[in-house]
Design goal:
rod-shaped, about 60 residues, mainly alpha, 2 helices
Length: about 60
């Protein structure tokens, strides 16, 4: 659940930075998008792991 909240927070930061007119804006966006990518990778991993463990549990039941 924290990862979903973090995703929304990153998106909020991203929208705010897109409105900025700073020469550093590209660096800020790169940092935010790295955080988004890492967060998304974590969400995918969790989904895959839950599915894998669920299958493993089903195999043990048979």
């Amino acid at each position: 659940m924290r990862r979903l909240a973090a995703r929304e927070q990153y998106r909020k930061f991203e929208r705010a930075v897109l409105d900025e007119r700073s020469p550093d804006r590209s660096y800020w966006l790169a940092t935010i998008r790295h955080g988004l990518a890492m967060n998304e990778a974590g969400l995918v991993w969790v989904d895959e792991t839950v599915a894998l463990l669920g299958k493993q549990g089903e195999e043990l039941d048979t």
